[in-house]
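Allow me, if you will, to draw on your knowledge of protein folds for a short while. I have a record of one protein: its chain in single-letter code and its fold written as discrete structure tokens. Could you please explain, in whatever detail you think fit, how the structure tokens follow from the sequence? The record follows directly beneath this note:
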Amino acid sequence: MPSLTRRDFALGTTCLAGLAQAGTSKREISVISAPISLGLRPGDRGQEPGTWRAPEVLLAGGLADKVAARQRIALARPTYEFGAQAGTRIRNGNTLRTFLLELGERVQAELAAGRFPLVLGGDCSVLLGCLYGARRAGGRGLVHVDGHSDFFHPGNYDTQARLGSAAGMDLALATGRGEDVLAKWPGIEGPLVADADAVQAGERDAEDADYDQYYGDIKRTAITRLTIQQILREGIPRTTERILARLAERGLDRAWVHVDLDVLDEKVMNAVDSPGKPGFDYAQLSTVLRALLGSGRVIGLDACIYDPDLDPGHRFAAPIVDCLAGALGA
């Protein structure tokens, strides 16, 4: 693993900085810990992945204090099961549903109280609980900032050949594709987010030769898609303009933002289950998120997939803490 350079650290400390002036500082912040690895397959040695430890490590680094969090809510860590659960071909599907319903209730309550939820995952399946809570609080829309589209569903893989992992399906499930256990939610008619109300930004594999074979169906949806190559070619200002224009076009003024930290280039941060390149550096991610949160169209944010077990000495923890704290007005 490459060492963290001074430049990387400096970028990390300023990542997302300036959002205090952009509007989030006027809202109280609540930090919700969602300590799960349920949505990921076992690691190379057959162990539970370590993303469940991310909230603990980031909070130990002072994140809640640095953002002056009004509320600190910690959900209990659920038990990871390695085998199939009854009635589902999604790994830990039943356990996930229970956990995500609770997370949704917490998100809804914080939004109802006028606070801005910062949800610390955990793996990307936490997005579903966040969207469920946001929808119940009157929210609509999603900006999915992720190095992958996370669009696995029964229409593009053999569910009997292997268990599906929800962290690679979260956008598909959020748009209503997949098993009812994670695609249908009480009190919500239809999917958590309509295709036309979703923006995916950061996919790095879409220009690979075999992408269409496995994920090509997302190209036939109304989901707005901006690949990382396209973003880097066109520039960050143009990208943020396009995302905000789409939100405005759809009348989305209470949208949720999901950030999978694997959208960062592996040379910047590689303590994730699927590191890769190309990707953002901290400054580029800063600019994108600053524009989104500063637009007044975003009601909450989740950050996922950092795995402390893949980060000996937790070298990336401090830059991540400073990045998020700077974003939220510390």
